[in-house]
Amino acid sequence: MIVSRAVTDNLSKASWIRRMFEEGARLKQERGADKVFDFTLGNPEIEPPPAVLAAARRVLESTAPHLHAYMPNAGHVKVREAIAGRLRVSTGLPYTANHVLMTVGAGAALNTVLKALLDPGDEVLTVAPFFAEYTFYAENHGGKLIVVPPRADLTPDVAKLEAAITPRTRAILVNSPNNPSGVIYPGETFVEIEAMLARAARPIVLVSDEPYRALVFDGVAVPEVPPLVRRSIVATSWSKSLAIPGERIGYLAFSPRLPEAAELFEACTFTSRVLGFVNAPALWQWVVAEVGDQVIDVGPYREKRDLMYEGLTRIGYQCVKPQGAFYVFPKTPIPDDVAFVRLLAEEGVLTVPGSGFGMPGHIRISLTVERDTVVRALPGFERAFKKARG
Amino acid sequence: MIVSRAVTDNLSKASWIRRMFEEGARLKQERGADKVFDFTLGNPEIEPPPAVLAAARRVLESTAPHLHAYMPNAGHVKVREAIAGRLRVSTGLPYTANHVLMTVGAGAALNTVLKALLDPGDEVLTVAPFFAEYTFYAENHGGKLIVVPPRADLTPDVAKLEAAITPRTRAILVNSPNNPSGVIYPGETFVEIEAMLARAARPIVLVSDEPYRALVFDGVAVPEVPPLVRRSIVATSWSKSLAIPGERIGYLAFSPRLPEAAELFEACTFTSRVLGFVNAPALWQWVVAEVGDQVIDVGPYREKRDLMYEGLTRIGYQCVKPQGAFYVFPKTPIPDDVAFVRLLAEEGVLTVPGSGFGMPGHIRISLTVERDTVVRALPGFERAFKKARG
After folding, report:
1. What is the pTM of this model?
2. A231, A313, B79, B209: which could form a disulfide with B175 (CB 3.0–4.6 Å)?
3. Which of A233, A262, A291 lies at the terminal end of a domain, its last residue?
4. Is residue B319 part of a domain?
5. Which residue range(s) make up the domain with B21?
6. Cβ–Cβ below 8 Å for A282 and B247
């Protein structure tokens, strides 16, 4: 055996997910791709706004020197200043270029900050349901992810979070709008978290992972975290808001209210470099500096959310109504979500079990599909529901 | 203290490098930037070939769908097929798309493969002088870098490599053309390494880090490693050959002769994902598939190499003549390279001590400067040499 034990273990744990993907591929082969409704992938099917592609073309046409060269590992100062300017407006806090570190997407941002925070054995708290990769991100740096159950509305139960704090807790990692639930954590949650952190025996940082911030419906506002929580760091990307997930561009923003902001900025500049990110792709840095406040049309996602949410609740599924992101996360009619995912697959409907997100008894339905796919899949959702209840 | 002990330790170890950078900045402020000759940074000052920027513009103008969307974590299959096709030609080995994993540059490639290979306490051998980041890349994944001294010509001493093998040795990591020495390891070295690996008690992989492969002078050919070493993996990037280091695009190529190629491809697809790279930037994948075999004009680098190498040897410096990359790595006239770097700085000449590359008694001179800078700096190199000898 040549692959490390740690990776071998992770791959074998992940093998049931792979088996399900293979089952999906087999189904498509057997029945024809148009008879299989694949709700497993969070891959935006829409194209970037034309202004984004136009901005990228302008960078490539520019005769300015060194646009594609190395730059400070934290990113181009002008780009970071542009992001800081937007953050000053949205938060009212005095962000500067030295509070912003450009990253190779949000996954890079999270690994960069967790490596800066964690020594072996340190703990990161998160709230179920959570983005499955968090487990790996913590373990990459010797840390351990501790998952805390949510309230019934799938928002954080801050009393339970506080009970989970130990002397090894270094960070709390939250994701709102949430993947997989689409739930937006209310401002009140962060007020409670702030009070809790103020009572903690040593500094604990709140890391707010916000790639879905711009994808919200019904006029709901996503609370800005830094004005509410003193020790906060925002990690995000433009993958969803500009529909460029393949391009890997995001940032870490260290709150000006964070007493250790300068120390963490320096540490993360180092960890981003030595983890091999080196810097965020230069071209896309220039692009987001110019048009990073654009947002794709969220109308189609809202429409699909409405269709799926209303369709499922009409059938009898219990579900918290998602207010953002592009997922629906209903309860399964039987407690065994993996068994229910198999029932759905028999109907040609592919979903992901909630167990993968620390929340058994649920399934994640990704809406990055055609509207028509939602309409045509609902009868399958109904038949599986009845079979399970039958 | 909020930053992890591990990162704090690394930052404090690195602080003398930072002090030297600060000293350089102070010098430029004091004397004027035109009186300071900065040979510390390996940042190509040239622009990408026009065909590269044109290919990128074509991607942005294309109406094909999903060009900027997620793709398989290993990269677009068509892109990997294009790279595999080039590797078939250059090596004569039957590479396919499943032997090629697109990465966020070579630093990402190395972290991706080291995480797949190393469990805590495992060892990676390398040969001095070596790219300083290797230490961090190994330690990121719980590994340890073991540095083996080279022969007098700065090529690997394979007998010493073999003596350094322990039951924890998992990989040998070499870099040719070499940063910092510019030396190209000859084919014979790899023949010896192959014989050594064949004698080893358990599989050890040779990781060949080759970002400077295309930057060679005097018609010298860089030996292809996979035909010579059965268990080999190539890590590389287009940072230097296309002068796009800010864009972060490279690959890992698992040799078709490597018995564990499929296993390592799968493991690295996983580690690339969970380390937060997710995938190599989509736009640049399409670009390198099309024009990745272009190479910048190496003429100016050769000219600067000649000027610097001849200038230094005329003064009395001892130096192996670099045949590739864009560095010169002379011996210092006194054993204490850090002290000599300070003497040079007094002359306005900024260089990096060889200690940083596992090779005290040397300095690294990076030629990513104007030709004129080389000419104007040589008197400073001469004065410092005489002072040191004086």
Report:
1. 0.97
2. B209
3. A291
4. yes
5. 5-48+297-389
6. yes
